[in-house]
Specification:
- This protein has two domains: about 350 residues, 3-Layer(aba) Sandwich (Arginase, Chain A), CATH 3.40.800; about 40 residues, no CATH class.
- It is built from 15 helices and ten strands.
- It has an eight-stranded parallel sheet with strand order 3-2-4-9-8-5-6-7, sandwiched between helices. The chain has a two-stranded antiparallel sheet with strand order 1-10.
- It is globular.
- The two termini are about 20 Å apart.
Length: about 525
C-alpha cells in the first residue's frame, strides 16, 4: 500500500491563503465495515471503510486527530429511545429472530431494517461516534467533529425506519444541548430527515432544516407546511424539491435559506447531515448534484465558524459516497485534495478514471426557478415568525399565511409529480387544520398524548399509515423492474442486481468478518455493483 506521505502532491494546504485552520476530530471504528445488512440490501457499511481508506491515503491524518469512540451503551441510547426498543435491539439476532415476531412488527424491523449479526454493536459504534464528537465540541476540544458512520436520521423513539435503528443525530444534539442554548440541524440527504424533525418538533432549542425530495418518496413527510408545534412552531424548516436538481439550483436555495436561518435563529452549534444519496447517479436518489456541488454545502456551513458536527447518512453508490465524504473531510481539515485517487486497498473500485470526482448526468431538472423562488419566499416568511435570539431585539411577528396561500404553494409543490400526497385535496387539508384548531392538541414536548405523533398520525413513526408508507427501496425496485422489462424485450436474461463476489486474494481478502474470523468482510461481497 502506498501512503500519501510519500507523495505530497496528493494534498495542498489552504493555510497559505491566509485561512485559519480549524481543529478537526475524526471518528472511525474499523469494525464498522464488518457488518452486513444482508444479500441485495443497498445499505453497505463498507462504504465507511472505503472512505477511511481514501482519507488515510490522502494524508489527512496529519491534519486532524483521529479517534475510535467508545461505543454507546444501552443507557446512553435510552436518553432518546425507549428502554423496551433498545433492549430488543440488544437481544435480537438472526439465530433467534423467530422468537421476536411481535416485537419485529412493533418496532418496524423487517425488510428495510433487517436483523443481522452484530446489529446492536453496529448501532453502538454509530451512536458512540456522534455522541463523543458532540461532547468534544462542547468541551472546546475541537472546532469540527466528523463521524461518517452517523447521520442515521430516520430512526424514531421506539422503532427502526429507512435502514436506521438508533438515531445518533438526536443523541448527539442532546449532548450539544447540555452546553449550547440553540442548535441548528441541517439535512442534505435526498430523503427527509423525519426522525430528527419529529424528536424536536415541539421545542425552539433546535431548529431543523431539511432539503429533500418530496412526493411519493420515502418517508412521505417533510412538506412545506410542517413547521413545528407548540414552542417549536416555525422551528422546523422543510424545502421540498423535485427530481434532477443541479448544483446551481441547489446553491440558489441552500445558501440564502441557511443565511436567513443564521440571521434569525443565531445557533451556537450546527449539526450537518451529509447524506450522499443526493449525488448524481445514486441507486436510491433522484437528484443531480456533483461531488463539488454537494461539498459546497459543507464549505458554506463551515464558513460560519461555529462548532460543527459533520455526519454521514444515505448514499448507496459506494464509490461515490466514499469520494464525497473523503473530499468533505479534506474541506473540513483545510486541504484541497488531488483529483487523482491515491493507491489504496479499494483502488480498483474507483476505475476506470481513478478520479476524485462525481459528475452530474443529463437528467432533467424539474425544479423551475419560479418553483424554487416561491418556496424560498414562503420559508423566509415562516422564519419571520420565530423569536429572535435573546441577544437580538424582538420584533412583531407578521400575520400567519392563510389557508388559500398555503394551498396554492402545496399545489405548486405537487405540480409535475405523478402521485398525490395522502392529503391531496384542499377540502381534506382544510378539515385536517380544523381538527387541529379545535384544541385537540397540547403543547407537550412528549411523544405521548398531544405530541406530534398524535397530530400527524405517526402510528409508524414517520407520519404515514402502515398501508400508505412508501419503502425507501422503492426506487431500486422500480429500476430493477425496468431493467428486467428491457432485458425481456431484448431477449436477454435480466440481472438480479447482485454482483460477482470478489476473487480470492483481492485487496479486501484479508479484512476481518463480523464473526471475528479471517476472510473477506461481509459488506464487501456485493461491492462491484457500486
Amino acid at each position: 500500500m502506498i501512503k500519501a506521505e510519500t507523495n505530497p502532491l496528493h494534498w495542498q494546504s489552504d493555510t497559505s491563503s491566509g485561512k485559519q485552520p480549524r481543529r478537526v476530530c475524526y471518528f472511525f471504528d474499523s469494525d464498522i465495515g464488518n457488518y452486513h445488512y444482508g444479500p441485495g440490501h443497498p445499505m453497505k457499511p463498507t462504504r465507511i471503510r472505503m472512505c477511511h481508506s481514501l482519507v488515510m491515503n490522502y494524508g489527512l491524518y496529519k491534519k486532524m486527530e483521529i479517534f475510535r469512540a467508545k461505543p454507546a451503551t444501552k443507557r446512553e441510547m435510552s436518553q432518546f429511545h425507549t428502554d423496551e426498543y433498545v433492549d430488543f435491539l440488544s437481544r435480537v439476532s438472526p439465530d433467534i429472530v423467530e422468537n421476536f415476531v411481535r416485537e419485529q412488527a412493533k418496532f418496524n424491523v423487517g425488510d428495510d431494517c433487517p436483523v443481522f449479526d452484530g446489529l446492536f454493536e453496529y448501532c453502538s459504534i454509530s451512536a458512540g461516534g456522534s455522541m463523543e464528537g458532540a461532547a468534544r465540541l462542547s468541551r472546546d476540544k475541537c472546532d469540527i467533529a466528523i463521524n461518517w458512520a452517523g447521520g442515521l436520521h430516520h430512526a424514531k423513539k421506539g422503532e427502526a425506519s429507512g435502514f436506521c435503528y438508533i438515531n445518533d443525530i438526536v443523541l448527539g444534539i442532546l449532548e450539544l444541548l447540555r452546553y449550547h442554548p440553540r442548535v441548528l440541524y441541517i439535512d442534505i440527504d435526498v430523503h427527509h430527515g423525519d426522525g430528527v424533525e419529529e424528536a424536536f418538533y415541539t421545542t425552539d432549542r433546535v431548529m431543523t432544516c431539511s432539503f429533500h425530495k418530496y412526493g411519493e418518496f420515502f418517508p412521505g413527510t417533510g412538506e412545506l407546511r410542517d413547521t413545528g408545534y407548540g414552542k417549536g412552531r416555525y422551528y422546523s424548516c422543510n424545502f421540498p424539491l423535485r427530481d434532477g436538481i443541479t448544483d446551481e439550483s441547489y446553491k440558489s436555495v441552500f445558501e440564502p435559506v441557511i443565511s436567513k436561518i443564521m440571521e434569525f435563529y443565531q445557533p451556537s452549534a450546527i449539526v450537518l447531515q451529509c447524506g450522499s444519496d443526493s449525488l448524481a447517479g445514486d441507486k436510491l436518489g433522484c437528484f443531480n448534484l456533483s461531488m463539488r456541488g454537494h461539498a459546497s454545502c459543507v464549505d458554506y456551513v463551515k464558513s460560519f465558524g461555529l462548532p460543527l458536527l459533520l455526519l454521514g447518512g444515505g448514499g448507496y453508490t459506494m464509490r461515490n459516497v466514499s469520494r464525497a465524504w473523503a473530499y468533505e473531510t479534506g474541506l473540513a481539515a483545510g486541504q484541497e485534495l488531488s483529483s487523482q485517487v491515491p493507491v489504496n486497498e479499494y483502488y480498483e473500485y474507483f476505475g476506470p478514471d481513478y478520479k476524485l470526482d462525481v459528475r452530474p448526468n443529463n437528467m432533467e431538472d424539474l425544479n423551475t426557478r419560479e418553483y424554487l423562488e416561491k418556496i424560498k419566499i414562503q420559508l423566509f416568511e415562516n422564519l419571520r415568525h420565530t423569536t429572535f435570539a435573546p441577544s437580538v431585539q424582538g420584533h412583531v411577528a407578521p400575520g400567519v399565511p392563510g389557508d388559500e396561500e398555503m394551498d396554492e404553494i402545496d399545489d405548486l409543490v405537487r405540480e409535475g409529480d405523478d402521485a398525490q400526497d395522502v392529503r391531496a385535496s384542499k377540502d381534506q387539508r382544510r378539515r385536517d387544520r380544523r381538527v387541529q384548531r379545535n384544541g385537540e392538541l397540547s403543547d407537550s414536548e412528549d411523544e405521548g398524548e398531544g405530541g406530534r405523533r398524535d397530530r400527524i398520525d405517526h402510528g409508524n413513526g414517520n407520519g404515514t399509515s402502515p398501508r400508505s408508507r412508501p419503502s425507501i427501496m422503492e426506487p431500486l425496485r422500480r429500476r430493477q423492474e425496468e431493467a428486467a422489462a428491457a432485458a425481456a424485450d431484448a431477449g436477454a436474461p435480466a440481472s438480479s442486481g447482485s454482483s460477482t463476489p470478489l476473487a480470492a486474494g483481492s485487496a479486501m481478502g484479508a479484512t476481518t468478518g463480523s464473526t471475528g474470523g479471517e476472510g473477506r468482510a461481509p459488506g464487501d461481497v456485493e461491492m462491484a455493483d457500486s
